[in-house]
Design goal:
globular, ligase, Pro-tRNA_synth_II, about 500 residues, 5-stranded mixed beta sheet, 11-stranded mixed beta sheet, alpha+beta
Length: about 500
């Protein structure tokens, strides 16, 4: 194996970047600001996608696909949305190249191939989707319209980091239309719950459900709900958002329906999404200085079998191991039998530890003769010798235990690093010395929120749905405050 990873303590950012690359999740591409998601990383994304897609369909949603390009006139129809994304848009202005007469073998943009109207490469799809919904919705019988799409989007980021912030990324975006505001709000809250359930049950990632302040709200939304998670360096990461759009997009694109009384009304909308940023959250929340720690429900390989043998013994040993492999597969466990004869067992142990495989079995002829198997669990690094006769059931239970333990460890970390503070001095000290979630009173004004952000680089992550009202005074201005907000520095 190559040299050891930097430790989280030494340089958390370098540790993250190196781990993503060395574990084979992703790498930088020839296109500035864009990434190549490698097979092992994409396999994790596929498991996320499959699980989320099932959850969407269970809640009545259907998948569709809409164009990558949005005519500028459509994009600017909802002014707040257009203004919010304007600085991040990639724009197509021409439709053809030609050979460059001044530079043999080179190409240039054909100056005669200018588009009549520029096309925005979608940073989000509200505009193109709502312009389509105008044709789909005529009557209350067409509602609710519950559509999701899996797609790529482009937001022209100048400072990028693999998975967390790239110019192009993968995501899903749900866009729904409803007959009443109450239905749309219920949809927004339902999808927030779906995201929270996925994060906690599958990613083993504890999250805080809350609502964003107006400053942090999605451009064009009436309300933005979010799930916020805490990474091991004490920074927050927004793991998913769900937006109540009111009638903003329906009015911008004139999406109306005839209600049961025959009166025409504008529909009420929502949008909601999670992205490959979840991959970054998965790495940063659980992994250690030896490599990835993957929750079994999302691990591409849940169990790896490493044969331990002397020269000339491998083929015979593999014959004895394969029934164990088949038994695990029959139980629904994804198994890798590492039969490479080009690497020593110690190298393989380190490689699969780096890749975060939850359970490792080391099997030699002597173990099989004794009716035992050496088992190592990735989360605690505990090594044990288990009876061969029960190995399938043992691994199955171990995967359940590991999933539970990874969540419990992350939950304990979050709870330990969530602190109530009452003074601005204490707030600033905690951010520098013991970063995490800080629950603090502020007066709720945009000006105070901006001041805190400018002076400390901390933002209001959310007003937690589960946090009770609590009379207090703003830590900055001394003005009355009705409840505490979750603050943190964030990705």
């Amino acid at each position: 194996m190559s040299k050891k990873l930097p430790t989280r303590q030494e340089d958390y950012s370098l540790w993250y970047n190196e781990l993503v690359k060395r574990a084979g999740l992703a790498e930088n591409s020839a296109v500035r600001g864009c990434m190549v998601i490698k097979p092992y990383g994409y396999a994790i994304w596929e498991k996320m996608q499959r699980q989320l897609d099932d959850m969407f369909k269970r809640t009545g949603h259907e998948n569709a696909y809409f164009p990558l390009f949005v005519p500028k006139s459509l994009f600017e129809a909802e002014e707040k949305n257009a203004e919010g994304f304007a600085k991040e848009c990639a724009v197509v202005t021409h439709y053809r190249l030609q050979t460059d007469p001044d530079k043999p073998g080179k190409l240039r943009v054909d100056p005669n191939a200018k588009l009549e109207e520029e096309l925005v490469v979608r940073p989000t799809s509200e505009a193109i989707i709502w312009s389509t919904y105008k044709n789909w919705v005529q009557s209350y019988r067409d509602l609710p319209l519950l559509i999701n799409q899996w797609a790529n989007v482009v937001r022209w980021e100048m400072r990028t980091r693999l998975f967390l912030r790239t110019a192009e990324f993968l995501w899903q975006e749900g866009h729904t239309a409803h007959a009443t505001a109450e239905e749309a709000v219920a949809e927004t809250r339902q999808m927030l719950d779906v995201y929270a359930e996925f994060a906690e049950e599958h990613m083993a990632l504890p999250v805080v459900k809350g609502v964003k302040t107006p400053n942090e709200r999605f451009a064009g939304a009436e309300d933005t709900y979010c799930i916020e998670a805490l990474m091991q360096d004490g920074k927050a990461l927004q793991a998913g958002t769900s937006h109540f759009l009111g009638q903003n997009f329906a009015k911008a694109f004139d999406v109306q329906f005839a209600n049961k009384e025959g009166v025409r009304e504008h529909v009420w909308g929502t949008s909601w999404g999670v992205s490959t940023r979840l991959m970054g959250a998965l790495v940063m929340a659980h992994s250690d200085d030896e490599g990835l720690v993957l929750p079994p429900k999302l691990a591409p390989i849940q169990c790896v079998i490493v044969p331990v043998y002397k020269t000339g013994e491998l083929d015979a040993l593999l014959e004895r191991i394969r029934p164990i492999q088949q038994g695990l597969i029959a139980r629904g466990i994804s198994v890798k039998l590492d039969a490479r004869d080009t690497e020593r067992p110690g190298f393989k142990f380190a490689e699969w530890e780096l890749k975060g495989v939850p359970v490792r079995l080391a099997i030699g002829a002597r173990d099989l003769d004794a009716g035992t198997v050496e088992v190592v669990r990735r989360d605690t690094k505990e090594k044990m010798s288990l009876p061969l006769a029960d190995i399938v059931a043992s691994v199955d239970q171990l995967l359940i235990d590991i999933q539970t333990n990874i969540y419990a460890k992350a939950r304990k970390f979050r709870d330990t690093n969530t602190t109530r503070v009452d003074s601005y001095d204490e707030f600033k000290r905690m951010l520098d010395e013991e970063p995490g979630f800080l629950l603090a009173h502020y007066d709720g004004t945009s000006e105070t929120e901006e001041r805190i952000k400018d002076e400390t680089k901390a933002t209001v992550r959310c007003l937690a749905l589960a946090e009770p009202d609590e009379e207090g005074v703003c830590m900055v201005t001394g003005k009355p405050s009705a409840r505490r907000a979750y603050f943190a520095r964030a990705y």
